[in-house]
Amino acid sequence: MSSIKDIISHYSAQVDAQLEAMLPAATGPAEPLFAAMRYSVFNGGKRLRPALCFAAADAVADSDVNTAKVAAALEMIHAYSLIHDDLPAMDDDDLRRGKPTCHIQFDQATAILAGDGLQSLAFQQLCELSELDPTIVVELVSTLSRLGGCSGMVAGQAIDLAATGSVLELDALKVMHAHKTGALIEASVLMGALATGQASREQLGALKDFAQAIGLAFQIQDDILDVESSTEQLGKQQGSDATNLKSTYTSILGLELARSEAAALYNQSMQRLESFGEKADSLRAIAGFIVKRNH
Q1: 75-125 residue pLDDT tens
Q2: Could you tell me the maximum CA-CA distance found in the chain, to the nearest angstrom?
Q3: Mind listing the pLDDT tens digit for each residue in 197-209?
Q4: Band (191; pLDDT cuts 50, 70, 90)
Q5: How many Cα atoms sit within 13 Å of 280 on the Cβ side?
Q6: Which helix (H) or strand (E) holds 95?
């Protein structure tokens, strides 16, 4: 696999097959709910979190059927968070990746239930892993609960909502995004390594540092792309961050300093992968894509 496109495509095919197998068919009395769950999961996402999960497993040992299950759980948590994030009570977005958001395509009640269903199904998936030490299964559940919940993503969303309309200092912005965006990226890397059953504490520590650096770089690059997109499309409707007067890295640092910060974080993340040698090449490629992507 020589290119980032090949790497992500290879990993995406595996997680998509697992998602297809585990998501309920859109039939029966709850057909609208199941249709909404499938609509939100299979809506053209880049599958970056599953890719990080697979790449971390390959950096430690080899990815396997358990990796696919863990990656599917992570993608369902990500999908549920986007469904709820788009709701009128939160970011109030009508489009997601160029398509109607779940509550627009269906309705608000169905969208809320679709998010709820995906969240619970993710944890069910972690309880169906094959031939893995029960203590590792518990650690996987604990990691996703912590980083996807009140100590991670959900707390970050709450901080984000509370900060709408106010100007944040840089340190406060970093805290918010370390929770809202970075926590699930960290979970993806750590859980991929954990699910191999062969990760040492030293390896997990290095991967945690890698994930935290690249998670912050991910959000900075998002903010940079928002500015570049707005510049190229003057006169068109701005994104929800601008509409809701949310602080961003570019609004605080300016475009050039934001680019420098993203580059520094990328370099920091690469240093933490040195001990893995060539086995971490897929992680390096994904990190490079995160920082250098142009859309």
Answers
A1: 999 999 999 999 999 999 999 999 999 999 999 999 999 999 999 999 999
A2: 56
A3: 999 999 999 999 9
A4: very high
A5: 20
A6: strand 95-96
Q: How many angstroms separate the CA atoms of 41 and 31, rounded?
A: 15
Count CA within 13 A, CB hemisphere, residue 192.
34
CA distance 163 to 144: 25
Asked whether the predicted pLDDT for residue 236 surpasses 90, the reply is no
Rounded distance between C-alpha atoms, residue 146 and residue 121, angstroms = 17
141 closest CA partner among 154, 123, 115:
123
Which segments of the chain does DSSP mark as H helices, in order? 4-22, 31-41, 48-60, 65-85, 102-105, 108-126, 134-147, 153-163, 170-180, 182-194, 201-232, 240-243, 249-253, 255-271, 281-292
